[in-house]
Amino acid sequence: MAGTSSVIVAGLTAAAFATVGFLGHQASVNVPAELRHPSAGGAPAVPEAPRDGNHPTALPGRSGQGARVVYSLDDDRVWLVGADGGVRRTFGVSPSTVDPAPGTYRVTSRSKRITGSDGVPVEHVVRFASVEGTVIGFSAAVDGSAPDPDPRKRTGGVRETRADGAAMWKFATIGRKVVVVP
């Protein structure tokens, strides 16, 4: 009798897992396109931001509202935007080998000084995303050097100058919105 009941329990458990999996799949295919996001982080998608060719350092349109950090993957540029929507500072950055998907994130952690994933001592580290185990964040090399990323290594440090890193550190506190645009 004990063997029969364990077979029944195993069968019911397998059926329950199959049902949950099927329902989960059905729910995922019925999510509206504007809410889907390709990253594992689950950040909501941000629509393509139009560019002003005459003003390449202008804040991208549709990059959110309120106080936020805006990071453009295509332009390798960051904007620190105040609560009133005014740009407080903008600067170029050196990207890492792993990019976050476009979307809205929040600053999750910070470190005053550490060794970066490429082995370089960095300061003013502001982390906001993770892609397949690679943590993404802004930082400045202590020696002021620019990165020379090896495309075969997964690194997540978006490098800034030391002055820009200090400005980011002051502005991007825990919970601050970070909007990544294409």
Structure notes:
Residues 35-64 are annotated as: Disordered. It comes from Streptomyces fimbriatus. This is L,D-transpeptidase. By secondary structure, this protein is α+β, with helices and mostly antiparallel strands. The chain is built from 2 helices and 9 strands. A 5-stranded mixed β-sheet has the order 3-2-1-9-4, covered by helices on one side. Strands 5-6-7-8 form a 4-stranded mixed β-sheet.
Any chance you could write out the topology, listing elements then pairs?
Elements: H1 2-29, E1 68-72, E2 77-81, E3 87-92, E4 103-106, E5 109-115, E6 121-131, E7 134-141, E8 157-160, H2 162-171, E9 177-181
Parallel strand pairs: 1-9, 7-8
Antiparallel strand pairs: 1-2, 2-3, 4-9, 5-6, 6-7
The geometry reads as globular
DSSP helix count?
2
Return the domain count: 2
Describe the sheet with the most strands.
5 strands, mixed
Condensed summary:
This protein is an alpha+beta fold. The chain has helices spanning 2-29, 162-171; strands at residues 68-72, 77-81, 87-92, 103-106, 109-115, 121-131, 134-141, 157-160, 177-181. Strand 2 and strand 3 (87-92) form a beta hairpin.
